[in-house]
């Protein structure tokens, strides 16, 4: 009987310094101990300039199950993961970083959860080791906002270290958007999820390719692609400003010109002007939000996401 195949998908960008150590000391020993599955490694070389690719070739020459997808230039980790999943042939795929921060020794546990019937096994890091204060706070804020916006359930600290089953891989591969956050999309797809905590390690060697700026862009991208809430918030602010300043202006007018200022408020022209301007700002914000609503519906359509995702395993007689 054919053993089931598991693809290990690994994006790599300038990882030559730590790559051998990651493979020889961490990944291979774990895979060798797992007997009831076959494995293939799908490396995506994301435009490395440091000899990562040559090192990968050395391994690929030795084994057919060591596959290398080479990008023409650096496209970023999210795209690299997508390419890896597109080329993965396995009945399940495990995505893992090449720098040793995500411990391969968790792989048997991932597989066990998969065997129990879960389709998405998500590694959740239990502490923040890698960044300074700003990134740490930023990351917490990011997850908090993402959850508040409620477009999909995201667990704080959930990482790209995941196992996804073939049905999920197939659905993932159909997603058409260009700006993509892999884990956000996998979360969006749904299916049975299982979270596994792990201690996020330190980099074996080399430098992280993601600096604060890149992470910030990533955060913005995921908000824009996952939610239109930011657009709508300004509309609400506009409505509040308009109502408040409108009421104040009305009160001011009636008091001054109809009642003859019985309470002896003093309404100088500048104040009237200020109220008028605030009122107009409110209107501008509202009209902007209305435009935003149109944009957001265009946005939703242009993403071209499928209307729904069917879990074939749980459906009957389709
Ligand atoms: N990576 C990639 N393309 C990039 C940046 C990173 O394929 O443009 C890979 C990198 O080689 C590593 C993984 O993505 O395997 C995570 O990258 P990194 O360690 O820089 O990020 P962090 O640990 O901060 O998530
Ligand atoms: Mg890393």
Question: What does it look like?
Answer:
The protein is an alpha/beta fold and 318 residues long. The chain folds into 2 domains: 206 residues, Spore Coat Polysaccharide Biosynthesis Protein SpsA, Chain A; 75 residues. It is 51% helix and 15% strand. A 7-stranded mixed β-sheet has the order 3-2-1-4-6-5-7, with helices on both faces. Helix 9 packs antiparallel against helix 10. The protein is elongated, with a radius of gyration of 26 Å. The model has no long low-confidence stretch (mean pLDDT 83). The chain binds uridine-5'-diphosphate (UDP) and magnesium ion. Uridine-5'-diphosphate (UDP) binds next to strand 1 and helix 3. Magnesium ion (MG) binds next to loops.
What's the gist of this structure?
The chain has ten helices and seven strands.
Produce the secondary structure layout.
Blueprint (H helix, E strand, L loop, with lengths): L3 E9 L3 H18 L3 E9 L6 H11 L3 E5 L6 H11 L4 E4 L11 H9 L4 E6 L7 H17 L8 E8 H9 L7 H8 L3 E6 L13 H15 L2 H30 L10 H35 L15
Parallel strand pairs: 1-2, 1-4, 2-3, 5-7
Antiparallel strand pairs: 4-6, 5-6
């Amino acid at each position: 009987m054919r053993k089931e195949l598991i693809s290990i998908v690994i994006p790599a960008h300038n990882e030559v310094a730590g790559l051998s150590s990651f493979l020889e000391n961490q990944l291979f020993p774990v895979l060798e101990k797992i007997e009831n599955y076959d494995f293939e490694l799908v490396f995506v070389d994301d435009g490395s300039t440091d000899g990562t690719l040559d090192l990968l070739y050395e391994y690929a020459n030795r084994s057919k199950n060591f596959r290398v997808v080479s990008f023409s230039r650096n496209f970023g980790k999210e795209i690299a993961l997508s390419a890896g999943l597109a080329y993965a042939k396995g009945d399940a795929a495990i995505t893992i970083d090449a720098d040793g921060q995500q411990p391969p020794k968790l792989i048997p546990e991932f597989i066990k959860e998969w065997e129990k019937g879960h389709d998405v096994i998500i590694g959740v890091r239990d502490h923040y080791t890698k960044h300074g204060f700003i990134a740490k706070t930023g990351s917490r804020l990011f997850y908090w906002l993402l959850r508040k916006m409620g477009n999909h359930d995201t667990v704080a600290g959930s990482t790209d270290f995941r196992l996804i089953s073939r049905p999920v891989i197939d659905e993932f591969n159909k997603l058409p958007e260009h700006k993509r956050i892999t884990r956000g999309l996998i979360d969006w797809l749904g299916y049975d999820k299982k979270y596994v905590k792990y201690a996020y390690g330190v980099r074996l060697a080399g430098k992280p390719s993601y600096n604060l700026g890149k992470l910030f862009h990533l955060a913005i991208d995921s908000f824009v692609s996952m939610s239109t809430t930011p657009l709508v918030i300004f509309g609400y602010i506009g409505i509040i400003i308009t109502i408040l300043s409108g009421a104040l202006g009305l009160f001011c007018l009636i008091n001054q010109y109809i009642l003859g200022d019985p309470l002896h408020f003093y309404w100088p022209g500048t104040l009237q002007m200020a109220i008028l301007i605030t009122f107009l700002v409110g209107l501008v914000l509202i009209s902007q939000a209305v435009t935003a609503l149109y944009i957001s519906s265009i946005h939703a359509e242009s993403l071209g996401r499928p209307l729904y995702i069917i879990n074939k395993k749980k459906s009957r007689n389709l």
